[in-house]
Amino acid sequence: MEEQLTTSEISAVPHSVTESAKRSLTHLEAVQTNFFDFLSLSSDPDVLSQMPPLQRAHALLLLAKTITTLFTLKLRCNGVDPDEHPVKSEVERLSLYQNKLERFVGMSKAPIRPSTSLNFEAATRFIQHSLPDLSQEQKRRMIAIGKEKKKNKNKRKFESSEKRSVKTAAKEFLEKAALELLGSDNEGKIKGPLQLKKGSD
Question: What is its main location (predicted)?
């Protein structure tokens, strides 16, 4: 008689529902085996310490979401509405953490912007006043270099999407200023605003 009830119960359930239940059971078994492997890896402090911080946070969030989802599924199977259960606050909390993590991932992929920019005119004035023995021609060249850099900087905003670092810009500026001040025949022999006078002993 029990076999007849079982057979009649089976015939009352549509075939598509039983197939869906079998597929769900197969997927749950796969989740169970993979979940225990993942759980053992994520609970190992050595593995966690070797992961980059964002990857570690992503792994721990995934673990928490998996546990919460499985618990919510268990509640639904037992006929309990998860929206009326305290697990709802955990789901909302995990959603907040996921938004935070996505924001940090976005920040890590964003292009690095320089924290400071170089004011070429101010740098020119600073260098000009730190070198007291400049001739009027050298001072004029120094001012022209500063103005030229400012014009080039404005052009570069539209021409190139890459921004140079402040260190590179300062190095190029100083090299060009040294070339203008010391001349091209110096070749790094004399440092500073001094030049050798030809013909004097």
Answer: cytoplasm
Dig out the tokens for 12 from the structure.
């009352």
| HEC readout, 170-199 | HHHHHHHHHHHHHCCCCCCCCCCCCCCCCC
Kindly tell me the number of DSSP H helices and DSSP E strands found in the chain: 8, 0
Mean pLDDT, residues 134-142 taken together? 78
Residues 24 and 102 in one domain: yes
Same domain? 105 vs 131 = no
> How many C-beta atoms surround the C-beta of residue 193 within 10 A?
16
Rounded Cα–Cα distance for residues 177 and 150 (Å) = 14
Residue 154 — very low, low, confident or very high, per pLDDT cuts 50/70/90?
A: low
pTM over 0.70: no
Mind listing the pLDDT tens digit for each residue in 18-52? 898 899 889 888 888 887 777 777 777 787 788 88
In a domain, 192, yes or no: no
Domain total in the chain: 2
Distance from C-alpha of 127 to C-alpha of 144, rounded to nearest angstrom: 13
